[in-house]
């Protein structure tokens, strides 16, 4: 007789957090399906969410603590044995060199586990670590810096008001595949179609005719030229008196810097750089500025070029100067249901440039430094040398530039430990790999970037499954390590805004847990019950009472600018010195690079692309996602393929100044002449059998780990617009 039961939960692979129904039998996951009663996703989920059943039940999954032996293999050990040894060795490093010798790398999945993110942060702050790294320098840190400069709040993520807008200008984003980033819109494909159905427009600016571009209007642009294009759009807006002067005066200061800068970039002069003809640029600027409402939006494609911070900055400026910031149908401000990030901002914890990295002198971004400098931070001797590294749900060997250099450096660490579901290309070099829980094996509250929601929404979930094997939540392990090191988790300093509620709970005799912290913040937040003072507000029982989640408003709030801007006068700053300096660097590059900035020895520009059945580097071990003719393939324009002597279905050798790879070829005019697009996250050599058997290579072998090649303001790795040449494969 079947004992199967179902449980309501939500996916935590990417930002839409689509609703799921899990079927469980005898403490094993049987299946996942979309939740038809979820108010936002409404029975929709992507292939990755459904296929997570195979990750949950994967025979290659790490289910017990593993210790690396002298011959490089792993042996199973007890939790007690692992934690005792780790605590002793970590304490030794800390006693000798303090927190400046201890580091942490936080991978993408941790962004969807509030408890792992919070407690790892507390742990590192308690140790006084000066080495904190994330996937952000390969993804979104430039957006955070732009927000810090514009609004005084790094975590403020303005987003497009999709349900009410008449015009979306989208740069470097492909939400038909990514499902939306820095915005929570589970049915974003439907949202975009609804705009055009009501007579509006969606214009996709991208070097590739992406899946989203095919469904809407496409403006092809040369890779890494977004800054020139945006300045030309602003040139037209300023020159043709399309500025909403009242909005500019009421909302901002310093517009003269941008007015003067844009004057030097008429579309007729930037066409050689951008590939977009002047007439198209001028009409696009006019249409955007005169639309009843409009919003500009950009994501990873806009963040990963040589001027990523400037591009993110200018995207918001375009909305502001046309009167489309903080208004219905425009670009609106995010408002957290759980105001953790807001509290952190007001407490001064979300810093920019408060400290600088030992290697490269990069400013911190919320305490984080560029991941691309980790290898040199490990190998460079002297005060502050990185000696012990903790990795949580990360695989930097495949995600940072020049992973082989990082592999060599990892071998020099005194201690390397990893929390993960798999032995991957990075942690196969670790001293210990510790079994982490999946998102189905832990309770959860919505965390990073969920405030950027066109329809305010809240859903929390209990664990669907008991942890398989000996897997443990990361936060419990961090707490146990701190105990075994003879230290207390709580402390003052930059995280005092977290410690105060924790200490208050402790005085009431309650164990200090991530859940109690989040419930406290939920109840005191903008939609909370204020501990009974606001009837109908959210509290710790909301998840049980509304398992499918609860919609908190028909639309995102507007008129929030005076609340969310933390700069003097509560106005957006358009002339920070960092942007003035970056504009000067752009102008100098424009002057020295030649007409189009191309390199005759490496005339092709490489960009990345996302795939609907991949999630960075960690879902290539699922049979469902890998079925069929699945392989990594470079997209090459027919003209470039013919010139290089490569054919569709064959292989191509891609060469940069920093390395070379060979990869399969798809010849297509989806990319323009002079552009090659290669998916990231491939090249598996870990403990996952199916992934290892797949064709593919690590595209980041083409990228530079020299700090001189990183974006200046946020330390972003240059992953888009990389100069390469094409040769026949072997």
UniProtKB/TrEMBL annotation:
SMART domains membership: Molybdop_Fe4S4
Keyword entries, A-Z: Iron, Iron-sulfur, Metal-binding
Gene3D superfamilies on file: 2.40.40.20, 3.40.50.740, ADC-like domains, Dimethylsulfoxide Reductase, domain 2
Single Gene Ontology MF annotation: molybdopterin cofactor binding
Every 4Fe-4S Mo/W bis-MGD-type domain range: 4-60
Family indicated by similarity: Belongs to the prokaryotic molybdopterin-containing oxidoreductase family.
Name assigned to this protein: Unannotated protein
Species assigned in the record: freshwater metagenome
